[in-house]
Amino acid sequence: MALPGERFHVLAQLEHLQSKYTGTGHADMNRHEWIVNQHRDTRASQMSHPGMTSFIAIVENESRARTRFNLLNRMIQPCGPPPDKNPLDDV
Amino acid sequence: MSRSGHNSSDYAQELNRKRANLRADDDDNDENNKNGNKVAFGAAGNFDTDVYGSARGNRSEMYLDSIGMAEEDDVDEDSAPSGPKKAINYAQPHKFIEEVAKASEDVDPFADTRSKTIAERQSKYHERAQRRQISPDRVDAFVDQTPDHRSRGYAEVMKDQMFQEEKGRVERELADRAKSGDLHISHLPREPEKKKGRWDETPQNAENLGAGSATPQGSAPRKRLGFSSISADAATPHVARWDETPAHSMGAADATPSVDKWSSTPAAQTPRRNRWDETPKENLGDGSMTPGWGMETPARGGPNDDIKIEDTPSASKRRSRWDLTPSATPAAGSATPLQAGGATPSFTPSHPSQTPIGAMTPGGATPIGTAAMGMKTPAAHQIPMTPEQMQIYRWEKEIDDRNRPLSDEELDALFPPGYKVLVPPMNYIPMRTPSRKLLATPTPMGGSGAGAGFFMPGTPERDGIGEKGVGGILDTQPKNAELPPLKPDDMQYFDKLLMDVDESTLTKEEKNEREIMEHLLKIKNGTPPMRKSGLRKITENARKYGAGPLFNQILPLLMSPSLEDQERHLMVKVIDRILYKLDDLVRPYVHKILVVIEPLLIDEDYYARVEGREIISNLAKAAGLATMISTMRPDIDNVDEYVRNTTARAFAVVASALGIPALLPFLKAVCKSKKSWQARHTGIKIVQQMAILMGCAVLPHLKALVEIVENGLDDEQQKVRTITALCLAALAEASSPYGIEAFDSVLKPLWKGIRMHRGKGLAAFLKAIGYLIPLMDAEYASYYTREVMLILIREFASPDEEMKKIVLKVVKQCCATDGVEPSYIRDEVLPSFFKAFWNQRMAMDRRNYRQLVDTTVEIAQKVGTVEMIARIVDDLKDENEQYRKMVMETIENIVALQGANEIDARLEEQLIDGLLYAFQEQTQEDSVMLDGFGTICGALGRRAKAYIPQICGTILWRLNNKSAKVRQQAADLIARIAPVMHICEEEKMMCHMGVILYEYLGEEYPEVLGSILGALKSICNVIGMTKMTPPIKDLLPRLTPILKNRHEKVQENCIDLVGAIADRGSEFVSAREWMRICFELLELLKAHKKSIRRAAINTFGFIAKAIGPHDVLATLLNNLKVQERQLRVCTTVAIAIVSETCAPFTVLPAIMNEYRVPEINVQNGVLKALSFMFEYIGEMAKDYIYAVVPLLIDALMERDQVHRQIAVDAVAHLSLGVYGFGCEDALIHLLNFVWPNMLENSPHLIQRWVFACEGMRVSLGPIKVLQYTLQALWHPARKVREPVWKVFNNLILGSADAIVAGYPRIENTETNEYLRYELDYQL
């Protein structure tokens, strides 16, 4: 077994690397944060695929630019306000 | 057996008498014996000439058996009063006594190998750090509370600063006056004297209050340039003494403000004082015997007495003797060291040139002196010794203890009953040379004087030897047994831990202090785990302990003169960690920390500098800009240049941490300071350091920075002008090639400057211009170059070394610009350039050498190859080798850059002629000549044909030389010129060479053999395997035994050659020969050098290709059974390579079959080979995946963790290989077996597991993996969640877009809208 200093070294590096990017999570995340990330990912994806943007634009009966704008706006608090800090929420 | 004490003493006396008689008529060249005395313990004894022969005895004169005696510097000159010298009568002649004194000095036999303390390797300038004061706490202006009366505010500090400055001025004036002779001392007996003493103490305090000792190791200046020393010259000797005794007054821990030393008494301030303090702590290593005299007022008799006190020996090493046992045993009686009790080691007799004991207290006239001695005398127990003394003392005591004769009681205990003492036979001659005795019975401790706490385990302890630890003087083991033992020099910092105290009686502060001390001791002296826990605890509790107690202990440790690099690193690390925790609590301690850390910024060790920078930048971030500025402001115009220098560097670091703009207003103010030129100087220096430190990051602020410093060019102080020019040079260098606009305003003053100034100032101005010219556009550059050239040419003749370097540099920069005409350089510059610089003297200094080569090459770019080479080519035959090397390197660089096309036939001839001469005459071992030869021949190409016979003749001649070095150079040269020979179509010659080299393969010098193999390889590569002579079939069998050679150079060259043959000429050699080589190659896998192992592995591949994989594979698989891990790993790689080169299907069945061998090493090896194989074969794996799945499944269900780990790794590589080939079914099956490994603890296994999941993400698609993770992301057990989040994060990073479709549908709550409605849209 590696020395205590070395243990988790590579993994710690990985964790550090991962934590530098938005959208990544960790074992203590609550589900609200996680879902917010999903929403943002989803809208970013929809905006960056022209086909998807067109599809949503047609459904919503808006212009493509407007749709893009709407999607952008929906990224601000996509799921409403975060729940009050309560450790039980996480469960 | 029984023997009375009486009998035994008789016996001993008899022996002694005999010994003395024998010695009396012993040979005459022995100084000691001639005098009827014994060899003193520790003195250089004689070797028995019967045993060792006479050579050894004579040779001993060649050895320097002592390190230099103490520098007999100024203090000793007029010391050594003659009176007492006469009073004590010694029988020994002077020489003997000197010898004893030398030999008994601590000549550490391992002095060279011992790692030096930082203080020892530092230069005088660096030592000045020790003289700085760890200043008292400062007021934290940001905290809303009444400041502690002890803390000083900005105003007090500035006042103090002004006081110092004024004092300096007065001192200088006094010195001047004393010099000019109009300072008269009126002998005002008591009153003013006393006052002076008191007043004098303040500055001394200011300098010495720092931790540790003021002046370590006697190398520090004896006389400090201070008021005191000057006044001493001016005939008041008392005062001088005051300064000489660096009253390291309060110990390290509390830095009493120098101003109110008396008011804030140490007693009040330091509750932890114990009896240690009563005997003043003192660095005995320094110039005086009288510690802490500054604290009491001695009743002085008169000036004379004082002088005598000062007469105590001054050099640290000698003095240590005296300090230890003032009551030294005079030599007379005993031959052997005094054994009894072991408490007082016997010391060698004193030495007239040192002050004998009597002289220390001359006539008893100075009661204080005696009293001070008295404190030292009896109780070694109570006086902290310097590390060295402790070391010597411990060592000697240890030797004494171990070598004392066995007592009767001990002998009784050892022997069974029935033994009795025999009378020695008449012809018995006892051994009488102590040194031989030491050799005869090696004691475990012998010679290992260094290194505290080094005890041979298992040495039986004899009673009476006393405690362990420092030779029984002091117990070095703290009472808390979990702590590491103290080193002797730690005593003053950690002494409290040695005392057993009842925790419950301590106050909270004391308890904290003790805890901190324990942690620090663990960090400083402990094992790595101890260190780690200490560091962790001290970090965790940093805020609880508070900044004050922490820094009061850490900083003195860092100032300790016996600090070593490692310890400093650890302490710095502690500071770094606690800085984060303490944050703004550090504010009052910023200055203290800076005092300690700033010296790191100018340390010669790169890493120390980086550490220093890191700490200061963290400090700046924690304390904030305002605190940093107000703390460091007073140091900016400190009278001491050292302080200003380090402060400037620290400021530069602050600027890089907090941003340049934040500092600009402050810098502007400082650089415009009217009050003192020092402030301006420092301000400009800060800018310079910023440029050096931050490089092109100064660009955005370039204009502002230049404006700040530009006034300095016209300063009335020469130093300010110089630093301004240097600063501009640094700014220009940092911003190159941009930013010339910012420098517009300084061009004119610089211009004027280079015409006005001379000497150092001019050098700086030239440097600035030199760095500015490359920024200019061609037109300007041309103009300025012409102007500056006149001055440069004038300065070519300057004898100043610094000027020379700068001139060369500027010439290089000027010539590199576009606007300069070649004709101008050719006509105006070159003649004087060559006259001034191309001489032997320039080649002697390394930096000049480099600079001259660079500049010449640069000029050659402008004026052409021929012009330059023609001028220096004849110098290749110069008689000075260093100079020839410089010429060769220059020509090589020129030719490498510009080719040899311009060189005409005549020059070509000269060149080759010179090359051959220089090559043959070389004596030094480096590659300059070889490289030069190779490069120039290569550049000549076909034109070299005419000279090849001549060159080859030389080489062949030299290959036969007696000197190994010459043979090696010749072989190396063949390797270099083989390609040229090929170009010249000299195949016949090369074949001839090949044969000759082949004949030399019996070479016994490995270095030469390596070169010969290299030459063969080079020839082989050039003419090809088929044309090679000797034929490959003869050559290779000759190489096989050489593979056994253990020398790395031989191994490397040989394996390269064999590999090349296996690659391109395998058909010339029989399969059996290749198998033989395979076996040899297995040995090479053990090589330390990676390139050898890699070459061996590749060769396996070539051989397998040549003779088919089966035999090779069998060999390799057998090798999996060996014990050594490195061998097995290399073998697996070789198997993988073989399977890659011979296609997997030839290999896979065999290794899968081998997996059935019930031996874990073999199975692991097979798996690992599979893993490497899949890594190498990539998408070819698609054909084999279904074949190996059962094996992998089996491996993944193995109990052994490592086994599974390798299997997971193999799966990872496999999955990446089969991406896009529709093997999802197999992969899912594998994933199901890989997935449960996430619960393992081994980080290696987890790492492989994450890797395998990553592979699956690629090949199975992210959504599949997401589905696996979703099951565990919100698992109640953290142990499950944690690894899965790692995989999920990898999914996000790798395929964020793709998994959008895979997220689960989550229903809304009352407050939150979790549904992604866009996904439900339908048309």
UniProtKB/TrEMBL annotation, chain A:
Its main location: nucleus. It comes from the Eukaryota. One of its GO terms (cellular component) is precatalytic spliceosome. Pfam families: SF3b10. Keywords: mRNA processing, mRNA splicing, Nucleus, Spliceosome. It is found in: Nucleus. One of its GO terms (biological process) is mRNA splicing, via spliceosome. Belongs to the SF3B5 family. PANTHER family: SPLICING FACTOR 3B SUBUNIT 5. This is Splicing factor 3B subunit 5. It comes from Caenorhabditis angaria.
From TrEMBL, chain B:
GO terms for cellular component: spliceosomal complex. Keywords: Coiled coil, mRNA processing, mRNA splicing, Nucleus, Repeat, Spliceosome. Residues 313-459 form the Splicing factor 3B subunit domain. It comes from the Eukaryota. Residues 1105-1183 form the Phosphatase PP2A regulatory subunit A/Splicing factor 3B subunit 1-like HEAT repeat domain. It is found in: Nucleus. Gene3D superfamilies: Leucine-rich Repeat Variant. Residues 1-90, 119-366 are annotated as: Disordered. Pfam families: PPP2R1A-like_HEAT, SF3b1. The keyword Repeat applies. The keyword Repeat applies. Residues 119-201, 274-284 have a biased composition (Basic and acidic residues). GO terms for biological process: spliceosomal complex assembly. Signal peptide: none annotated. Residues 866-893 form a coiled coil. Residues 325-337 have a biased composition (Low complexity). Residues 1-11, 345-356 have a biased composition (Polar residues). GO terms for molecular function: mRNA binding. InterPro entries: ARM-like (IPR011989), ARM-type_fold (IPR016024), PP2A/SF3B1-like_HEAT (IPR054573), SF3b_su1 (IPR015016), SF3b_su1-like (IPR038737). Residues 70-79 have a biased composition (Acidic residues). Belongs to the SF3B1 family. This is Splicing factor 3B subunit 1 domain-containing protein. The lineage of its organism: Eukaryota, Metazoa, Ecdysozoa, Nematoda, Chromadorea.
